[in-house]
Amino acid sequence: MNRLVSSKLTSKFQATVPKEVRETLRLSAKDQIVYEILEDKTVIIRKASSLDKAYLKGLDHTLDEWSSEEDEKAYKDL
Questions:
Q1: Which domains does the chain have, with CATH numbers?
Q2: For residues 35, 3, 30 and 44, what is the CA-based torsion angle, rounded to 10 degrees?
Q3: Which sign, positive or negative, has the C-alpha torsion 22, 25, 5, 76?
Q4: DSSP state of 26
Q5: pLDDT digits over 9-32, tens only?
Q6: Which of 2, 29, 60, 64 matches a 20 to 30 Å C-alpha distance to 72?
Q7: pLDDT band at 7 (very low <50, low <70, confident <90, very high)
Q8: pLDDT in tens, 20-71
Q9: DSSP, res 19
Q10: Beta bridge partners of 43
Q11: For the whole model, what pTM was predicted?
Q12: How buried is 6 (Cβ within 10 angstroms: 0-12 exposed, 13-18 middle, 19+ buried)?
C-alpha cells in the first residue's frame, strides 16, 4: 500500500526526512540519500548504495570548477 508522507522546506531549501521515511529506509545519521529524477518529474528518494556512492564519487572531480570562494558567495542563497 502506498503512503504519502510530507515535510516542509526551510528558507534554505532544507527539509527533515520524516521519521516514517527514516525508519522505512533504515537511515542513520551521516547516511547518504539519493534522489532519482524520472522523465515524468517523479522523484524517488532512497538510501545510497555502495554503487551510488562510487558513481557520485567519480563525478566529484567534474565539479571542481564550481568550488571557488566567488562561487560560494554568488550561490550561497540558492
A1: 1-64 (2.10.260.10)
A2: -10
A3: positive
A4: T
A5: 999 899 999 999 999 999 999 888
A6: 29
A7: very high
A8: 999 999 999 988 888 889 999 999 998 987 665 555 665 565 656 656 777 7
A9: H
A10: 37
A11: 0.58
A12: exposed
CA dihedral 13, 18, 21, 25 (to 10 degrees): 80
Q: How many residues does the chain have?
A: 78
Nearest to 30 by CA among 12, 7, 53: 53
Residue in the block written with cell 566567488:
70
Cell of 71: 562561487
Q: Which of 42, 40, 10, 44 is nearest to 24 (CA)?
A: 44
Give the cell for residue 35: 534522489
- Tell me the one-letter amino acid at 15: A
Non-local CB neighbours of 50 within 8 Å, separated by 6+ positions: none
